[in-house]
Amino acid sequence: MANAQTNNSKITIYVLSCWIFAAFGGLMFGYDIGISGGVSGMDDFLLKFFPHVYERKLHAKENNYCKYDDQLLQLFTSSLYLSALVASFFASKAATKLGRRPTIFMAAMFFIGGAALSAAADNRWMLIFGRILFGIGVGFGNETVPLFLTEVAPIQHRGAVNILFQLFVTIGIFIANLVNYGTSMIHPNGWRLSLGFAAVPAMVLLIGSFVITDTPTSLIERGKEVQGKAALKKIRGVSDVESEYQEIVAACEQAKQVKHPFRNLAKTASIPPLLIAILLQIFQQFTGINAIMFYAPVLFQTMGFKTDGSLLSSVITGLVNVGSTFVSIYLVDKVGRRKLLLQACCQMLISQVAIGAILATNLRETGTLDKKLAAVVVFLVCTYVMSFAWSWGPLGWLIPSETFPLETRTAGFAFAVSTNMLFTSLIAQAFLTMLCTMQAYIFFFFSGWIVVMGLFVIFLLPETKGIPIDSMVESVWMKHPVWKKLF
């Protein structure tokens, strides 16, 4: 079956456009990750919404590690992820009942609403309500886009196609860093432009939702077999799709027997992919990546860079992030998932320990880092971001999207998305306080987690390269030395 799927497909202009339009859901998400930290560091933004933080920042002798420690400022960032957490479960229902394409449309609409309200905000609560709308858009987009990309991708390119989502996340972060660098020089409303421009990728996704087809799996699952077969022919670019069509029909028939997919996740066969999906999301956040990405400008200011210099440094890390994701696209279907994850654990561990050691020995509560050491830290941050971008970043979304059987796929992936959002919000809410309390030792905290992650990959994570998504139970879980004991 795998061979039949491999041979009966070709890449057409139409299917490329489907992949790229859908991947703009990742660009929305990435833009928001990148924009939050930059806006949080802008004086005009702080003066309007968080004047006490602005006053604290002005004090020359203020503790380097604590000057941005403010729960409401962190709520500005984390509120999006809390609303995304709740929204992902509604998105799961929408993706199953209405289809992948309408759910993507809803994601774009919510995000546009969030951009409009945030850009027009005149008080903190308008600002935070705008973030909540952003969050609903992110919840719907992050639930549906990786599933869409996995379901429309031919098996031999599934990893690379799914990683388009993460590639566009990194492009969004990079664009946000560039926008913040430019708008930081526009006074007093540059921050409004930063937040308002979030509507641009959402508009592209909105237009794309009218161009793309729904996935064959979603159409057949909802009883639209004729449209499903036509969609399969269209995205495969060939007319002979009978074997793959029959496989999808069989999976859908099996899925129809399941009346309560969320309840079904408690069954033995669902435990391995569910645990793997949840742990991948937790570990993805405890690499410390979003602490770096959310607060890169703030972090670089802590090390003694001026505002413009810190934004420029975060632009550099954003560019590294984008470039390194192409490595994953190239290698994921060649070397597999496990090797990329393990290599990255080693590289991230070295980078984090080195950053922690430099800051612990050289950055006191007042004063700044030596310029050469600051440059070394920027380089180490880049090597850290580089390894994350070709491993835990994209594979954290890819592996959960390809390992659930159809009957629990949207429900299982909703748990993955909600877990990601929960721990993203926890990191966003806690990072500046942790930085204040733990100071440089926060990097050793994340380093400890990276060791745990490496052990997780070695003992519990199976290789899923080249396995048809509807054959995971028989081909992966039943053969794994640990998980096969559950069957």
Provide structural commentary.
The protein is mainly α and 487 residues long. Helices cover 77% and strands 0% of the residues. The chain is built from 23 helices and no strands. The longest helix is centred in the last third of the chain and has 30 residues, at 409-438.
Task: Name the descriptors.
single chain; mainly alpha; Growth Hormone, Chain: A; globular; disordered N terminus
For the sheet with most strands, the description reads: none
Overall, the morphology is: globular
At the fourth level of CATH, the homologous superfamily is: MFS general substrate transporter like domains
The residue fraction in helices comes out at over 70%
Membrane topology: Multi-pass membrane protein
Subcellular location: Membrane
Organism: Nicotiana sylvestris (Wood tobacco)
Protein name: Sugar transport protein 8-like
Give a brief description.
The protein has about 475 residues and is mainly alpha-helical. It is built from 23 helices and no strands.
Outline the fold blueprint:
Elements: H1 2-7, H2 13-40, H3 43-49, H4 51-58, H5 71-97, H6 100-119, H7 124-152, H8 158-183, H9 190-196, H10 199-211, H11 216-221, H12 225-236, H13 242-256, H14 261-264, H15 271-286, H16 289-302, H17 307-335, H18 337-362, H19 371-389, H20 392-403, H21 409-438, H22 442-460, H23 472-475
Helix pairs in contact: 2-7, 2-8, 2-10, 2-16, 3-4, 5-6, 5-7, 5-21, 6-7, 6-9, 6-10, 7-8, 7-21, 8-9, 8-17, 8-20, 15-20, 15-21, 16-17, 16-21, 17-18, 17-19, 18-19, 18-22, 20-21
